[in-house]
Amino acid sequence: MVDVFIRGDTVVTPQGVGAYDIAIADGKIAGIAASGSFPTPPNARVIDATGKIVIPGGIDPHVHCKWFMPNPDGTAGLTEPPDVVSKAAVHGGTTTMIDFTRANQGATVREAIEKREADWKGHCACDYAQHLMVEGALPVDLPGQVGEAIEAGFPTVKIFTTDITPSRKGRMVDFGDIWEVFQVLAANGGLGVIHSEDNDIVMHMYGKLIREGRTGFENMAEVHNTLSEDISFRRVIRLAEKVKGTALYMMHTSAASGVSAIREARARGVSIYGESLHQYMLYTSEDYKRTNGQIYHTYPSLKTKEDQAALWEGTLDGSIHSVATDELCCNLATKTQGNRIDDTTGGNAACEPRVALMYTEMVGRRGYSLTRFADLVSSNAAKIMGLYPRKGAIAPGSDADIAVLDPALRRVIRKEDLHETDYSPWEGHQVDAWPSMTLLRGKVVVENGRFHGKPADGQWLHRRIADEILTGTAL
Ligand SMILES: [Zn+2]
C-alpha cells in the first residue's frame, strides 16, 4: 500500500530530471511516473514538492563519529557521536554516512566490527556503514580476516601511507603490507580507500619547518604539499596496477597533482575514483590566515587557487567523483586548541550544509546539471561504495531516501541554525536552497526544520561493490 506520495516538477532520477510523481510503500520507492499519471493513492500522505528540487538523499562517504582525536598535550578525546552528527546530517538532506572501524586495534576484525556497531546501533538517525581501517604494522593473519569482512559486507578498506604528523606514529602501513592488502581486495571484491601522502616528504618538511622556526599551522601547505600528493598517488596507483583487479578510491584529494594522477591512471584503464572535500573545493591555504583559521583545515591541507581549480575541473572530467566532508565534529575550543603544523586538529563540522553548499556552488554558480550535482553528493558514492541502487537513486525498488531542496529557503549559513556544534566553517556563506524535507526510507525525518527522527532510525548497510566499479572505469 502506498503510504507516501510525492508530487514533484523537478525530480532527479537515473533516467533524467523531470516532473514525476513518486509512490512510496514500506520505505521503498514503489513507482515513479510522469506527473498526473498515477491516481492519488487513498490514505497516503501527499507531499507537494512542486517548485522544489527532489534528489536522492545525500551520501557522505567520509565521516568520523565518536572518533579518537589527539590533543596537543598528548591526551585524546572523542568527536561527537553519531547521535549528534546524524541528526545534523538529516537536517541537511544527507541520509547515509560512511564511517570507519579500526580493524586491528587489539582484537580480531570481527570483534572490532561488533564493538564499533555497538556505538552506532540505536544511535544514528540516518543509515550508515563502516569502512574498515587497517593501521601500522599489520598482523600476518589480518589480510585473511579482511577477506572475510569483505564477504560480510565491509568491502572498503582504509589505508594510510603516512603517519600524518610526527606524533601520530602507528597509522602508516608500509608498502609490503599494502601490497598484501591489495591482493586480498582484488581477490574478494574489495576497494582500497586511501589516505595517500608521501611520508618521507611530509616528515622531511616537518623537520625542516621546525628547524626554521616556522611552526605555525598557516604553513601547513608546505608540509602536506602537492609534491607529496603527486608521488604518493602515483606510487599507490603503480602498486594497484601490479596487483590485477585492485580498485582504488583516493580520499580527500587536495591538489592538482592528485587530480592528474587519477586522470592519467583512468586513461590507462585503472579502476580508480577520486574524492575531494567541500573545504578543499572552496577554501585555499590563504584562509589559514583568517581568525580561527584552523576551522578550515583538515589533513592533508588546503592548497592554492590553482589546485582548487583543478579539483573543480576534476568534477567535470571524471577524476573527482564525490564531495565528502571528513567530518570530525568537535567544538570550536577543541578545533582551535592546536595552532602548529604538527598539532592542529583535523576534520571539520559541516555534514549538515554539504548538500546545500554544493547545490549552490555546482548548479547555481557553475551551471552544473542537477544530475551531475546529485551524482557528486549522492549517487556516485552509492555506486563506488557498494550501495547502489538501494541508495543514491530515486528509482523503483530503491530505498525512499529523499531530500527536497527548496529555493525559497535560500539563506546565509549561521552556526545557530545548524545542529552540529558551536562553530561552522561555512559561517556567512550564502546558499541558494535548503532542504524543506528529508525522508529516510519513506519516513519524514525532517520537515521545515523540525526533527521527527529518532536515534534508532538508522540501519547498518550491508555493502557489496558492483563488478563494473571494480573492474572498469565506470562513472
Ligand atoms: Zn578522514
Outline of the structure:
It is built from 14 helices and 21 strands. The chain has helices at residues 82-91, 109-120, 142-151, 175-188, 199-211, 220-223, 226-242, 256-267, 278-282, 305-317, 332-335, 354-365, 370-384, 467-471, and strands at 4-13, 16-25, 28-34, 45-49, 53-56, 58-60, 68-70, 76-78, 94-102, 127-134, 156-160, 191-195, 248-250, 272-277, 322-324, 402-406, 411-412, 430-431, 434-440, 443-447, 450-451. Bound molecules: zinc ion (ZN).
Q: What is the typical, i.e. mean, pLDDT? A: 97
N→C terminal distance:
35 Å
Q: Indicate the low-confidence ranges by residue numbers.
A: none
Which structural class best describes the helix and strand composition?
alpha/beta
Bound molecules: zinc ion
Share of helical residues: 25-40%
Radius of gyration: 21 Å
The outline comes out as: globular
In what range is the share of β-strand residues?
15-25%
- Would you count the extended β strands for me? 21
The helix count comes to: 14
Order of strands across the biggest sheet?
Answer: 6-9-10-11-12-13-14-15
For the sheet with most strands, the description reads: 8 strands, parallel
